[in-house]
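Submission checklist for the structure archive. All mandatory fields must be present; incomplete records are returned to the submitter.

[x] Identifier: Pectinesterase
[x] Organism: Micromonospora wenchangensis
[x] Residue count: 466
[x] Sequence attached
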Amino acid sequence: MVALLARASGATSYYRLALHAGDQVRLEAVRSGRVTPLGTASHPVTVGAWHTLRIEVAGTVIRGWVDGVPVGSGTGTLTATGRIGVQTGHATARFDDVLVTRGGPAPTSAPPTPGGTPTGGSPTATPSVTPPSASPTPTPTDTGPAQRSSVVDPDGSGDFTSVQAAVDAVPTGNASRYTITIRPGTYRETVTVPAGKPYVSFVGSTGDPRDVVIVYDNASGTPKPGGGTYGTSGSASVTIDGNDFTARHLTFANDFDEAAHDYAAEQAVAVLTRADRLVFDDVRFLGNQDTLYHNSASVDAVGRAYFRDCYVEGDVDFIFGRGTGVFDGCEIRSLDRGSTGNNGYVTAASTMIGNPYGLLFTGCVLTTDAAAAQTVHLGRPWHPGGDVNAIGQVVFRDSVLGAHVKDSPWTDMSGFSWRDARFAEYRNSGPGSTVTADRPQLTDEQAPTYTPQRYLAGVDGWNPIP
């Protein structure tokens, strides 16, 4: 995303004209971080080319153009004055020929070439967009006129009415970004992005993750039509096997009703990841036990994922697996199981011993819907099948911990001691952050080794952090 900002009164309130993947241009009002669409248009956005953006604010009326084409207009209630600026997300851009004027006619000419003078503007900028540089796979190229995007709409006005149908239409061996825009609705289906379809993006069309929900209700113990049960992995509402997947502004959920079923195995996964270089931005993950199964393709493979401004809820081991994951500025919410002593565990990492990086929570806030104080563990070490080489690695740092977090927040699992795992904290705050003998702390000298960049870099230098 590359955007021009106007009337910015802070980091979370402004008007924005943004170029998005999939040839989408959006005029939006952002108020306290909440995005309100004012207008959208489909317009070719060419990587490496110059585009002219113009945003005009007159009183409460906001208008936008890209390359002289109107994007839309709307009314807003932000401050009457503010700063202008530029913004990028998961992309880099160069801005040239920036012009700010008071009023002026709407642009009618084609975009100027670099070094030229834009036609009018209030403000106007000409950005050249380049993709992120940290990916080991070949630079995606569009080799022909094949469709690079599609729209899912439950009422039939898009290209597809189900998310899986849109995924099925992505060419196998896809080598460039393919954006699936999903319009508001509840999509009750299971979805799998296969390993042979990398570079797929799911984008909620409204910018509000509550408007688009992909949900199903299988549990580990749910009987399969052909016999047997689904098991933990098979219970996932959404499975991501394709590398370089991204998701923004939507909700993944598993709404299995524990009270209505008498299953011995109640694990119910909302999302299972078994791929590398994944980005989840402003995404909600809803479930109870085993909500987010962050894994990798095999015990010898590293599966990295960056979770930014996300919301994850559950009760038992609801963030688990051997994947490498960074949770940056997320809300991690423990649901109440009604216990006065044990309301669950946030993590159950099974990081392989050869991998120095498992799960990192930085700048997060740990909350609860009602769980009693001192009843939730930060985590326990999961050794799948008794694997002695699965030595969980988890760090909570610079985060706010609610009163529901135990003073002794780590605990044993299936006969394996938490003390043999790699658990630590650093500079946390809040009522649940009391430092005790049972809470290993990083030193100031160790802390620089445990940053989002270190966790995600791998051998290819991947860096999805804006």
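[x] Structure attached
Curator remark: Residues 2-130 form one domain. The two ends are 10 Å apart (CA to CA).
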